[in-house]
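TOKENISED FOLD:
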Amino acid sequence: EVEGAYLLPSDLLLILSNITASSLVKSLANQLFSRSYPMTYARIERISEQEDLRRALNGIIDEKGEIKDTASTELFRIRREIRANKERARKILESITTDKATKEYLQEDIISIRDDRYVLAIKAGMHTSFEGVVHGRSGSGSTFFIEPMELVQMNNRVAILKKEEKAEEIEILKEATAKVSLQRDFLLSDLEDLSTLDLIQSKALFASVTASVVPAVSETGEVRLISARHPILVFKEKRGEGKAIPIDLKLPEDKAVLVISGANTGGKTVALKTLGLLTIMALSAIPVPAEEGSAIVAFREILADIGDRQDIVASLSTFSAHVKRMREFLETASIGMLVLIDEAGAGTDPSEGGAFALAAIETLRGRGARTVVTTHLNLLKAFAQADPNYLNASVEFDERTLRPLYAMRYGVPGPSLGLSIAQSLGIPEDVITRARGYIKEKEGAFIESIRILEQEKEEVSALRENLRVLEARKSEAVAKLRQNRAEILDKARKKIDALVGDADREIRETVERFRAEGKAAAGKKAFTQVDKARASMKARLGHKEQEFIPAAGDKVTIAGSSSKGEVIAVDKEEKKAEVRFGSLKVWAPWDKLKKRGGVEGRPAQGMSVNADMEIASALNIIGLRVDEAMPKVTRFIDNAHASGMGSVEIIHGVGTGALAKAVEEFLRGNPAVARFHKGERGGGVTIVDLK
């Protein structure tokens, strides 16, 4: 604080505006923010409305930021006297200008003000004959500005009053400043809360306009931005300047480096910027233009080298500028950091640039940082295709029309198509032909291998989709077959029940007749034999005479198997029991179990079990290709489900992960599978619980 200092009227107007806004926000709090937003509501609740200060400032400052006449009694008196003197002076000047005797002196018939005093414009050469005080001369020298003697005393009085007015205004401002100073802490707190509320509103408005969401924070380390759009492109679309095409951006939890390649103008740099910017926005609690289901990683720091950092003043070439930036990355990189590099290794010989970029990226990975790079260098593409810690991705490009599709394809690198794009931009055909001839055979083969790989991936995707459709059809057919079989059995049972009922009546009538004729013993024996035959018939048709409810410790066998096991756990809601067969544990339905020496459970209605077939509890597909392994997996799951087994294992190993991924996709869409998870032995075994 400075002694004697005071706030200007414009400062007081700003303070008054903030107080008014605070009061308005608090009065509308229950309408704008319900108690379902406790943190926001708490900020609004603690706002001090400052009603006394608001009234005081309203009495001093008008809406233009000027001190009101009524700010004090003394100021009102001074300003009223000033106005009265000015009005008298104006009337005197009007009488002078309309006087015929003075008309010839006037250069023009107007009243001017010089140095806050009323003057008249008198012609040069006649100014010596006009009584008054000269206050100036025009630029041309043809006019003198003279204050008539009749106004001198009056103008002197106005000048004195002006000084009194200024002094009174300062006193008023000092008093107002003192009142503001007493509420300083409250006003600063209110300003902070209003700023926070303004920020919240801005974020909400941004989210509404851009259709943004709040992404989840991944606990596994996976970055997943679904249908992501760069905010600048979104706003350009809002202005009618093109369309913001969404892309899917991802960095799986088991990958440390994402290498983005593909054609020039294909959108690699935009993808890199979108990933970086949306991650920073999310970490700043700003909704991002993406779809629900998106997730980001809470990176501790994000480093970026994007664009050409050439600097003539600093004597930095493109490559040396990138090297300088890379040195900074290598000095600071650690776990929890994300590094974004555009055109890694560019600006020098491709072989040396690629080697340098790869060495730097590997060093970053070794220090725990995760990296996303864009590149045209084949060395980086090939390394990423071979190393399991890397993931290749390419921006899709229509090679027929040579137009970018603004979509990402993961798992394969993309060709740069530099010559094709040059040709489309008007470079003569003979130049393009000559350039193609200069391409080394090895580099040409690499580019061709990329195209073949892309084509094979598309074919695999098509085959996988066909397999999914066939599996769905198969499941539908099996379900329909079981339903039909159940209906047929039900009709047969009803028919047999009717026949058995008729037979019962005839047998009882015969027994009664035997008794009446003294042949009771023979009748009883016949009746017993018929009861046994009836029970046998009902058993074959699936009638459940007595349900076997297993208990822990029961010795049992499972239908379709001769192996002997022991019940170790029972799930009464699911009507399943966990049975130990040596070192193997499986879950099985109650009606698949037979208690040794006790009641035998029966197969579920409509299910066929081959009692002579021994169903294995595990399938080993290590060493097989995906196309060799999946038919075996299909048969294995179908047989295990048909036999009533509760849980089985598929041993696929770790390797490249292709077998594990194929098995996971198959199990996810299989109607016989209840759930599946990785085994305790690691990621090389998947345990499947069957329905």
